[in-house]
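From the methods appendix. Each design record in this collection lists the discretized structure first, followed by the designed amino acid sequence. Records were kept in a plain field format so they could be parsed without special tools. The example shown here is representative of the layout used throughout.

RECORD:
C-ALPHA CELLS (213 positions):
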C-alpha cells in the first residue's frame, strides 16, 4: 500500500497545545510532525538536521511534545494515534469497496433506477410548471378588464387574426367598463359575442334571416 500523503489536523487541539509557543517554535513543531508522518519516528540526528542552528534554542521547548523510546527515537503520541486511526479507516473502506465490486451490478442498477426516478420527478415538476404557466391569466385592454391566458390569446389571434382579436378584446374591455359585465371566462364570452354578432348580421331589419346568395 502506498504511503498516505495526509493526516487529520485537529486545529483546536493544536491551538490549545501550542498556546504558549512563539511563532518560531510553532513552525519548527509543524516541521517535526510532518517528518514523523513521513518516516514514523525521529532520531535526534534528524531533529538536529531539521532545526539546524536553532536546535539548542528550540528543542528544549519542543521536547515536551514528544515521547522518547528505548532506542532513543522520538514520536508525538497524538500524531501517531491519528495516523493509525486513518490507516484503519482506509483499510475498512478498501474492504468495503472489494465487497461492493461483487454487488457492483446491483449497485449500478440501483443508481440507474434512482436517476430515472429523479429524472421522472424533475420532468413532472417541469410539466406542472408548464401547465401552471398556461393557466396564468394576463390583463388586456385599455382598462385591463379582459383576462386571458397565453393559450387563449393565441387561439383568438388564430381565429380572428391579430387585428380582429385586438378589436374584440377592446370591445369586451369597454363593455365591462361601461356596464360592469362579469364572466367566468372572458375567452368564451368573446367567442359567444362573436357568434351572436355573426348571427345578427344575417338578419334583416325585422329580425328575419336573409336569403342566401
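DESIGN:
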Amino acid at each position: 500500500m502506498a504511503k498516505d500523503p495526509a493526516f487529520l489536523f485537529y486545529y483546536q487541539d493544536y491551538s490549545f497545545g501550542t498556546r504558549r509557543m512563539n511563532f518560531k517554535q510553532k513552525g519548527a513543531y509543524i516541521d517535526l510532525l510532518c517528518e514523523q508522518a513521513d518516516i514514523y519516528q525521529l532520531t535526534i540526528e534528524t531533529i538536529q538536521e531539521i532545526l539546524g542552528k536553532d536546535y539548542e534554542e528550540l528543542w528544549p521547548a519542543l521536547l515536551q511534545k514528544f515521547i522518547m523510546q528505548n532506542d532513543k527515537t522520538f514520536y508525538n503520541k497524538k500524531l501517531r494515534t491519528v495516523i493509525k486511526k486513518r490507516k484503519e479507516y482506509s483499510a475498512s473502506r478498501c474492504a468495503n469497496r472489494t465487497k461492493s465490486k461483487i454487488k457492483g451490478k446491483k449497485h449500478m442498477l440501483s443508481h440507474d433506477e434512482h436517476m430515472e426516478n429523479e429524472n421522472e420527478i424533475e420532468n413532472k415538476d417541469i410539466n406542472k410548471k408548464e401547465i401552471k404557466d398556461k393557466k396564468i391569466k394576463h390583463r388586456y385592454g385599455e382598462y385591463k378588464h379582459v383576462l386571458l391566458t397565453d393559450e387563449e390569446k393565441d387561439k383568438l389571434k388564430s381565429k380572428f387574426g391579430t387585428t380582429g382579436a385586438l378589436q374584440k378584446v377592446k370591445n369586451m374591455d369597454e363593455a365591462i367598463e361601461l356596464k360592469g359585465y362579469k364572466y367566468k371566462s372572458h375567452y368564451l364570452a368573446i367567442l359567444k359575442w362573436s357568434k351572436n354578432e355573426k348571427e345578427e348580421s344575417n338578419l334583416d331589419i325585422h329580425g328575419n334571416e336573409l336569403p342566401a346568395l
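APPENDIX NOTE: The first helix runs from residue 11 to 17.
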